[in-house]
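Quick question about two entries, pasted in order.
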Amino acid sequence: MSSARAFKYLPPRVADHIRGLGISARRPMQGGIQGLHRSPDFGASVEFAEYRDYIEGDAPNLIDWSVYAKTDRYMIRRFQDETSLRACVLVDASASLNYRQTGPVTKFEYACSLAAGLMYLLVCQGDAAALSFFTDKMTQRFEPVASTETLSPILLEMEKVEPKGAGDIEKSLHEAAEMLKQRSLVIVISDLLQPPAQLARGIQHLQHNRHDVTLFHVLDAAEIALPMHGLVELRDLESTEKLLIEADEIRPRYAQAVQGYLAEVSRICTACGAHYFTVETRTPMVEALAKRANLF
């Protein structure tokens, strides 16, 4: 990646700090080149998987003679082939991501930085990474890239994207599940402003198609604990509806409701077999990426 161009969402200081991190997948992946991740196919890598009976035409040197000595059967050792990982990063670009109160950047800017860092880690370890933005549907797609050189144009295009419109995470995840034809690592970055039950249906569709799913829940700290006092007018960034509240009066109930919501989202993700991480926009990017890196 050229050092002559400083990317907004992947500044050189961040790239330098995260380069040593790695990302792996729990489910066996399918890829086009040999790499670091388990494949559902079998080949001649170092990880033993199982035995199978010898079939006429198999090379004799594949026979496990120690097994033959014990069982008087010709058996072939099958190995788990290793493959490159194919990942798809899905970034929520709905209007609610424009929110910024206590953090140094908006939720959308933070989400884009997280996406850029994840894609950079993936291509640096020899894997392929694609990127899609979504609101209530997929709005912009970038085909998989597998090198820092081919990642650079995507990083430039990301700087042009502006969050707008209403979001529908469930619908977008259903669309992603239908769009992805190859088993992949799917990383969703969103503020998850949708009833948890609807979110669960989208995750379950991805999991049913045997994708490995990770969710990054991006929040401004002000969404967790109300920092304002007195009478406050709130405006929904997606619907533009307004609500007048007495912040001090509702703060305890609001905090309780938020914690209950976060716990329910975490429970649903665990039940669906997805990895779930909450990150505030004040969280250093290296720390946020380390939550997912080297998970296994």
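Here is the second entry:
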Amino acid sequence: MPSTRIDVVARNNVKITGTGRPIVFAHGFGCSQDMWRFVAPSFADDHQVVLFDHVGAGGSDLSAYRPGKYDSLDGYADDVVEMLEQLDLDDVILVGHSVGSIIGLLAANQKPSRVTALVLVGPSPRYVHAEGYEGAFTQPDIDELLDGLDANYFGWSHTMAPVIMGAPDRPELSDELDGSFCRTDPAIARHFARVTFLSDNRDDLKHVSVPTLVLQNTDDVIAPMSVGRFVADQIPQSELVVLPVSGHCAHLSAPAEVVAAIQGFLK
């Protein structure tokens, strides 16, 4: 009988370097593992560094994308758990950016026996305001954002990349993010955007049972300070570190600060 085992290395374009305690990096919406290139190498001397692409992004196997599976972030978290199990990774530090941080959190909640520390870079468990919760957007804001993405994905990416990056003095970073958006299949990107921006994972925060570092930028239009504080308040064993950085992508615009914060957390 033929095996049904999925090759997660090929599916998620997994790249592994170094030896030691595993540290796994999960990228955010519209991005790929390349976005960690200024951060991940700093850990290769004493860690096993694992980079991967979510299905539908980067060099992942696009044929593995099934909208039904990825109608929620749990589908992506299942992929992460499957990757950890097939690679037999234990005592994992899981570092996630933006929606990748929530995916990592969901994976840690599934398998705290394998994921023993979390680093959440610019996390947001809910992007829309709710009673008693100050997110980044109103519902009409999100509707307009998603309608614009549906109507003209490439125009949306060109407009939004500088806003998300928040580094006007470094236009090359905005150009890189725009290019990354444009290399993502538009149909997959539209679906992932709706799943991302309409998700509500606030209740999952209190179930995190591993030490967690929350990295919050001082000026982030996607994940504002109110959200970072909420995340840190809700996770039992959490530490909030505020970086003096603008924008949503500190791992690109201020990688030294991100590396130092993670290294301090792991000591």
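Reply: The mean pLDDT is 94. Strands lie at 15-17, 21-26, 47-51, 92-97, 115-121, 212-219, 238-246. Hope that helps.
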